[in-house]
Design goal:
heterodimer, A: 276 residues, alpha/beta, Rossmann fold, 6-stranded mixed sheet, 24% strand, globular, B: 480 residues, 11-stranded mixed sheet, 11 helices
Chain lengths: 276, 480
């Protein structure tokens, strides 16, 4: 039976500032969802909150997989339950080799009960698997010996996120603007890689401003966020429309939320002025 | 032109409270001390020094050398800088302990309880291939040692310092105490008065030794000071890598380790001296290390300091002639109740000399790590280049890191670079690793291991493994 990631009436605050204001979303294993919306509408906040970033406080609502609440779980426990976030800005960990990091990660995800100090995945098996995943993704073997994201170009960092996705094989993957900052060749590369990885065992939530990623990975559902809420649901055509026409139509259809968005923007601006 | 680049020093108050506690000291076992052949009474005076010299059956000049050093030791005041030594009681220490009556010829002959101690430290496994060349110091006397035959054939001398005094007297006397005179500092004077054991290496002209020479040191008797004395002479065009590692059992009362290491690197020669020290948390580790590097030579110190109550150690390189290069890589880990005051000194005495210092320190659970370094360029030493990079990682708000970089320049036409950074484990790094299924402790440990990786990769394989394991042990027992 396929698993379900359920987000119910989710309210999230950062530093006591309310960002998400009641988000509902249901994603089944095997589905592709597009999550769109203007800057500051709360897409990345939703992604971080799902993964359990300590600064993102869930003030109301629940996140669950097959009825098991994730709210109180640490990010590593969520990862072991099959959740994955491809970061928009992957973090650099100097001195830690990609292969060493991945071997730890894969060992923990495949064996969620693994205690510290217990054996890692056998080196030979792991290396073999890593090598073939890298080949499939067209990533040079030399990457395995580099320090995690250290000195990586923007494109290399995104490829590294995709390699992690390929190795960890989560049930639910959130891709936070994986296509941002990439040239069109790199976007095609990432799109094709995602398309190869997706299937009945993996749900993908694609957060994007662009259509490129969605051309190859056609979403069954598109969700549009505005001012911390999901204001519209649709299919691939909605994504296409937003790409063509921008968010003016959305704002026009939801004047109350748009007004709230405007008020928030003014407040932020004032705040910024005061700060400087 | 003096180029002084002071890079951004970021002082970050650690926001993440890592509940990473210091695991119990792993090597907290000790052998029975009943079997020691001779232990001097506690305390230090002329009688003790004369007794040590007599037991060792030394020539009169060495006895005089020791007694003069003792006078200097008594006259010199305690240093007022560095760490807290107010609890160090010189009269409450054994200055000489001899563990085994005679030196053993091979591993099988080494007494069983001593072998068992080494076994528990995992030494034989890691060392088997080098065993033939190992000089292992147990207590104050070398009990095990043999030298690979081909080295002997090439004229390499690798022996304990007491034997060198007996068997290679002329060579010994030419260099002993010349790099670090007894009057250099209080602890050099103390070592000069009561020294015992240590390694003596002579590498003849042009001989390249392509595997590391190794020695293990270990303190195993309560309130016992260990005062080994190492002297290394690398003749013109020769090269050697000497490695020592230390680990000690935990005891309740204070212990003192005060070594002196003197190195002469002649024209075109290379020497690398690698140390990993992991004294138990009651040891005062006060060591003087200095090398003289001559024309076109290369001297490198790789210095890893874990454990001890207080370590004060600043390996120095005097760059004596043009083309001489010096490099020091220093790693310090200060855990609960520990103060690592470590660093390096580079003294440019000649033009066209180059030095580099890279220091990484980690402090945790209230530990204190200080970098203390000197870059000195003498008048007339034109076209010198010196660079210092020190990075500190602070793991919790209770811990502390300080940087004391001293720069003395008496010449204009030089390049000096100094960069320092202080950082903490960032919340974003932890979140990233945790989002991939790593626990908080695993993530912290991985970040720390990565922080020192650039230095650890310079260590011989088995030491790198050991170093990483020690770091993991220090980080362990933390969460959950």
């Amino acid at each position: 039976m396929s698993s379900v990631l359920k987000i119910e009436k989710l309210w999230v605050a950062i530093d006591d500032k309310q960002i998400l204001k009641g988000v509902d979303l249901e994603v089944r294993q095997g589905e592709i969802h597009a999550l769109m919306g203007p800057n500051g509408s709360g897409k990345s906040t939703l992604a971080y909150a799902l993964m359990g970033h300590p600064k993102y406080e869930v003030t109301e609502g629940t996140i669950s997989i097959d009825g098991v609440s994730l709210n109180e779980l640490e990010p590593d426990a969520r990862a072991r339950m099959g959740l994955f976030l491809a970061f928009q800005y992957p973090v650099t960990i100097p001195g830690v080799k990609v292969a060493d990091f991945l071997r730890h990660a894969v060992s923990n995800i495949r064996n969620p009960e693994r205690k510290e100090g217990e054996g890692l995945l056998p080196m030979r098996d792991f290396r073999k698997e890593l090598r073939s995943r890298m080949d499939e993704l067209g990533i040079e073997q030399e990457f395995a010996r580099r320090y995690l994201n250290d000195g990586f170009s923007g494109g290399e960092k995104k490829r590294m996120e995709i390699l992690q996705l390929a190795m960890l094989r989560p049930r639910f993957a959130i891709l936070d603007e994986t296509d941002s900052g990439l040239d069109s060749d790199a976007v095609r590369f990432v799109s094709e890689a995602i398309s190869r990885l997706s299937g009945p065992d993996m749900a993908i939530i694609i957060i994007t401003h662009h259509e490129r990623l969605l051309e190859i990975n056609k979403p069954q559902q598109t969700h549009v966020m505005l001012a911390g809420r999901i204001v519209e649901h649709g299919d691939a055509r909605l994504a296409h429309e937003l790409h063509d026409q921008g968010y003016a139509g959305i704002r026009a259809r939801h004047p109350d939320v748009a007004a709230e968005e405007e008020a928030q923007a003014v407040k932020n601006e004032t705040h910024a002025v005061v700060k400087t | 032109m003096v180029q002084e680049k002071i890079a951004v020093v970021t002082e970050l108050k650690p926001a993440v409270e890592n509940e990473v506690g210091l695991g119990d000291y792993q090597y907290g076992f000790h052998d029975s001390t009943d079997k020691y052949v001779f232990t001097a009474r506690k305390g230090l005076d002329r009688e003790i020094v004369e007794k040590i010299s007599e037991i060792k059956n030394e020539p009169a000049w060495m006895r005089e050398f020791r007694l003069r050093a003792l006078e200097i030791f008594f006259k010199k005041p305690m240093p007022t800088w560095g760490g807290d030594m107010s609890h160090l009681n010189f009269q409450d220490i054994h200055y000489y302990v001899r563990a085994s009556a005679a030196q053993e010829k091979n591993w099988d002959d080494v007494p069983e309880d001593i072998r068992r101690t080494y076994d528990r430290l995992g030494i034989p496994e890691a060392e088997k291939k080098y065993l033939a060349g190992v000089k292992a110091q147990y207590e104050s006397e070398v009990v095990y040692g043999s030298l690979q035959e081909d080295l002997a054939k090439q004229g390499v001398i690798f022996t304990d310092t007491d034997s060198a005094l007996r068997e290679h007297t002329d060579l010994f006397r030419e260099y002993f105490g010349k790099v670090i005179p007894s009057s250099d500092n209080k602890f050099a004077a103390l070592n000069s008065a009561v020294w015992s054991g240590g390694s003596f290496i002579y590498v003849p002209k042009g001989v390249q030794i392509d595997f590391p020479l190794q020695a293990y040191f270990r303190i195993n008797s309560e309130s016992m000071g260990q005062f080994e004395r190492t002297l290394i002479i690398v003749d013109e065009g020769a090269s050697v890598h000497y490695v020592e590692g230390c680990t000690a059992p935990t005891y309740s009362s204070e212990s003192l380790h005060s070594a002196v290491v003197e190195i002469i690197v002649k024209r075109g020669a290379r020497c690398r001296y690698t140390t990993i020290q992991n004294w138990s948390n009651n040891v005062y580790n006060l060591v003087t290390k200095r090398a003289m590097a001559y024309g076109d030579s290369l001297m490198e110190w790789v210095d890893g300091n874990l454990g001890s109550k207080l370590t004060m150690k600043y390996p120095a390189i005097y760059l004596m002639e043009p083309g001489a290069r010096g490099e020091t890589l220093s790693i310090a880990f200060a855990g609960k109740g520990q103060h690592q005051d470590a660093g390096a000194k580079m003294v440019h005495c000649a033009p066209h000399t180059y030095s580099r210092i890279i220091s990484k320190s980690i402090s945790k659970s209230g530990g204190r790590a200080s970098y203390r370094g000197l870059a000195k360029i003498a008048n007339g030493a034109k076209h010198c280049k010196s660079s210092v990079v020190c990075d500190a990682l602070i793991l919790d708000p209770q811990s502390r890191s300080d940087t004391y970089p001293y720069i003395e320049i008496d010449e204009d036409d030089v390049t000096i670079e100094h960069e320092a950074s202080v950082s903490k484990i960032s919340e974003e790094q932890l979140f990233y690793l945790k989002s991939r299924g790593l626990s908080e402790a695993e993530a912290s440990s991985m970040i720390v291991t990565g922080f020192i990786e650039p230095l650890v990769k310079e260590l011989p394989m088995e030491y790198a493994v050991e170093m990483n394991r020690l770091i993991e042990l220090q980080m362990e027992g933390s969460v959950g």
